[in-house]
Specification:
Length: about 130
């Protein structure tokens, strides 16, 4: 029986870790894509703020000595790089908020456990005589 319980414990730890990493990685990729597409919708020809940012970034690259074509490509790369960073931050915020709420629910469930309540009552009566 001890061998079987050891195998069950090790396999449970392995599969739990593997599934947990898988869920976290897939959630990160899904949320990064979602936020990237949502944020990149604002970089259009109709958006004056986006065009102004592209123009000023292009001018800064031209001032550094790049040609107009190369400066435009570098400006777009810089803007989409900042969109990528922002989407990663938003995805991480969502994931850790969900994990935090899950832990809060777990703490509440543990606090409502009847066996733990009885143990705490026993500890209180032994420590604080009352």
């Amino acid at each position: 029986m001890a061998v079987s319980s050891g195998i069950v414990g090790v396999s449970g730890r392995f599969w739990g870790s593997t599934i947990g990493f898988c869920v976290m990685q897939n959630a990160t990729v899904f949320l990064n894509k979602k936020h990237f597409f949502k944020l990149s919708q604002f970089v259009t020809g109709e958006n004056p703020e986006a065009q102004q940012t592209i123009a000023s970034t292009t001018q800064s690259f031209i001032a550094k000595g790049y040609s107009a074509d190369n400066a435009n490509v570098l400006a777009m790369k810089k803007i989409f790089g900042s969109i990528t960073k922002q989407s990663t931050l938003l995805a991480d915020m969502e994931i850790y908020t969900i994990v935090g709420y899950g832990l809060l629910v777990l703490i509440i469930l543990i606090a409502c456990n009847q066996h733990l309540r009885q143990t705490m009552t026993l500890v209180k009566s032994k420590i604080w005589i009352g």
